[in-house]
Design a protein that fits this description.
Blueprint (H helix, E strand, L loop, with lengths): L6 H8 L4 H9 L4 E4 L6 H15 L5 E5 L8 H5 L3 E4 L5 H5 L6 E4 L11 H18 L4 E7 L6 E2 L15 H21 L3 E6 L2 E2 L5 H11 L2 E3 L4 E2 L2 E2 H10 L9 E5 L5 E2 H12 L4 E3 L5 E2 L5 H6 L7 H13 L19
Parallel strand pairs: 1-2, 1-4, 2-3, 4-5, 5-7, 7-12, 8-11, 9-14
Antiparallel strand pairs: 6-15, 10-13
Helix pairs in contact: 2-3, 3-9, 6-7, 8-10, 8-12, 10-12
């Protein structure tokens, strides 16, 4: 596969549904509401749902909800057939007025700035999902979570599995576990069918761990390898597998790790980018014995495997950056080892 040529090509690929997603959309009854759609992943995820629905020949509303505070942030969605609704999701009255839908993809949350705005972090990551679970008590809810809830595990391990006991480090991870707990409570007490999608880390060439490393190598900055290992997944694959999780919702809630197949070593990735750019990789630090890693075996067995391999993704990122492709200027801070974001 050749690398995406520009932003239009990139977003077309990120939103291109797999055959499995099209078939699922043919079976899935009813409209889909995406809450918090204006983030990094939401626009192409909602667009994929629209495309898959159309390819399946089904009449269905795809509705994207967000504050849409950035100028023009809803235009691309509407141009591709996604209805948009501006809403402050922390406003209880506004939540009550949201449209009914049998399918909800919950993406709203707060990560960056979590340790300087702790009350807002907990409101976004715990209070809000509790309210959404009440509003959509009879709907399927596929809710995004994070692998940060597990904490660090030995870098020699396969990574955390869904059955491991969470050990969140820092307020962000703790509040994300709080999100899961209130949704699990709704599944138990209301019978709300729920999927919890523990993602780390999606990459779409404009942002992601690979992009963070590549841009440092390209610009001659040092790459700290203290957090020596990580997982990542092409966002197009993450989009497809996340939509398939709608059909896996159940009560009690179903949990899934969503990431790539390989455990990548930061040092080796930086050196690979150095070779592709024809520049030296300036490595500093020493790898710790543990890292934030997830085992996605359950995902591969029950939803499917990623189509884009990590080696291909590295080549795409290098090509994108070398040609001056745009970036979102939203670093992942994956190297944080103290849970502060």
């Amino acid at each position: 596969m050749h690398a995406p040529s520009d932003s239009i090509d990139l977003e077309e690929r990120l939103s291109r549904p797999s055959a499995a997603v099209v078939e699922m959309m043919r079976r899935l009854p009813g409209d889909i509401v995406f809450l918090g759609v204006a983030g990094k992943m939401g626009p192409t995820l909602a667009r994929m749902a629209r495309r898959a629905t159309d390819e399946a020949g089904i009449a269905r509303r795809i509705i994207g909800v967000s504050r849409f505070s950035a100028q023009g942030s809803r235009d691309g969605l509407e141009q591709h057939g996604v209805e948009t609704l501006s809403c402050d999701l922390l406003d209880a009255a506004a939540i009550a007025d949201l449209p009914d839908a049998p399918n909800v993809v919950f993406m709203a949350g707060m990560k960056f700035g979590a340790n300087s705005q702790e009350p807002l972090t907990w409101a976004m990551n715990v209070l809000l999902p509790a309210r959404i679970a009440e509003r959509y008590a009879t709907s399927r809810i596929a809710a995004f979570s994070t692998g940060n809830i597990y904490g660090l595990v030995p870098s020699t391990s396969a990574g955390s599995s869904e059955d491991d006991h969470p050990q969140p480090l820092g307020e962000y991870a703790m509040s994300c576990l709080g999100r899961e707990r209130v949704l699990q409570h709704a599944a138990i007490t209301q019978g709300t069918p729920i999927s919890l999608i523990r993602l780390n880390y999606a990459c779409d060439l404009r942002y992601g761990v690979l992009v963070d490393i590549a841009r440092k190598v390209f610009s001659g900055q040092s790459v700290d390898v203290s957090m020596g290992y990580f997982n990542t997944i092409w966002q197009g694959d993450a989009n497809a597998l996340s939509l398939l999780a709608l059909e896996k919702t159940q009560a009690p809630a179903w949990k899934i790790n969503l990431t790539g197949r390989q455990c990548l070593r930061v040092r080796e990735v930086a050196e690979a980018f150095g070779a592709l750019f024809g520049k030296p990789a300036n490595i500093i630090g020493e790898e710790a014995s543990d890292a934030l890693l997830s085992d996605a075996t359950r995902c591969f067995q029950q939803l499917g495997v990623p189509h884009v391999e990590e080696t291909t993704l590295i080549e795409w990122v290098a090509d994108w950056i070398a040609r001056g492709g745009e970036g979102l200027d939203k670093p992942t801070h994956f190297e944080s080892r103290d849970g502060r974001f």
